[in-house]
Amino acid sequence: MGNNKVRSGICPLLDKETEIRESHIFPKFVYKSLKWNNNSKFVTRQVRCVPKQDGLKRYLLGKEAEIIFSQYENWFARYIYKPFRNGELNGVVEYDEHLYYFLVLQIWRSCLFVTNEYEKDTFADGLYETILLAMSEWKQYLVNKTLPQNYYNFYLMPIETKLIRIPRFLETEFYIRRNIEFNIMNSDTQKAVYCKLPSFIIWAPLCQDSNINYGFNIEPIGGSFDLSDYSITDIDIIDYLVYKVNQTVEWRKQMALLNPQKIKNNQAKMAKDKDFQDSELAEILSMPSLSEMQLSGEDYTMSFIL
What we know:
Blueprint: E1 2-10, E2 17-24, H1 28-34, E3 57-62, H2 63-85, E4 92-95, H3 97-117, H4 127-144, E5 155-158, H5 170-178, E6 181-186, E7 191-197, E8 200-205, E9 216-217, E10 223-226, H6 235-258, H7 260-272, H8 274-277, H9 280-285
Antiparallel strand pairs: 1-2, 2-3, 4-10, 5-8, 5-9, 6-7, 7-8
Helix pairs in contact: 2-3, 3-4, 5-6
C-alpha cells in the first residue's frame, strides 16, 4: 500500500508519533487493475499535473495503520472487486464485517485527504464541520470498532452499463469502469460523501432522513445482498452520473486538444502492443461512441475531483 518514502509525524488514525508513509489515497489494487502495461499513466483532473505511472499519493498514515487497512483492502479486492469486474459475482453475495470496515476506511481516508488538502472556506457552509464530526465517529470505529452513532449508514453501489439506463457511449464505459474520484453530493435536502472506484461507488450520507436509493446498505456485522435483479433506478443518482459522464466527455476533449500528436503516438503504440489488444482499455475504446473522442487512444485513466 505504501513505499519506502517516510517522514516523522503523528499518525492521524492511531494518534501516536511514528513514521508517516507516502501512501495511496485510493487502494493500490485499483491502479494495478487499470494498467495494461508499464506505460499506463494516471492524471488528476482538478489540477494540471504531469501524468504519473502510479496513483495519487500523500504522506498520510503510519505503517501500523497501513497494515491494518491493507487486510481489509485485500479482502475487498479478492471477494468483491475482482469477481464483479470479471463478471463472476452474481446472485446472492454473502459478506462479513470486512466489507463495512473497508467502506468506512476508504471514505474516512478520502475525507482526511480533502480536509488536509483544501481550506475550510472552500466547502459549503457547515459542510466542513459536518465532515469532521462524521470523521470522528468513523475513526473510533476504525480504531476500536465502536459503531458510529450518527453517521452509520454506508452503501455499496455496484455499477455497470447494463445496470443503469443512461446513453451508452464510450465515456459512459470509461467513467464507470476506469475513473476514480472522491466527491460530495451537496444540496439543500441531500448531503453525502462518496468514493467512486472502478465499477463501484461507496456512499456515506451525512443526513439520516435521505430518501435517495444509494444501493446496498451494508451491515457492520455482515449480511448479504442480491445482484440477481439489481438495477440503478433512483433519478437523483442517474442525473448525477449523467452529469459525471458529461464531465468526462469534456475532459477527454480537452486532453485531446492539448496534445493531438501524443494521441496519435499512443494510437500507434497501442496498435503494436499485444498486451493492449487483450486489455480492458482496448475493449472500451473499441465500443461505438457518440463522442468526438472516439478511439482517441489517450491513456489517462484517473479522475479526482472535488
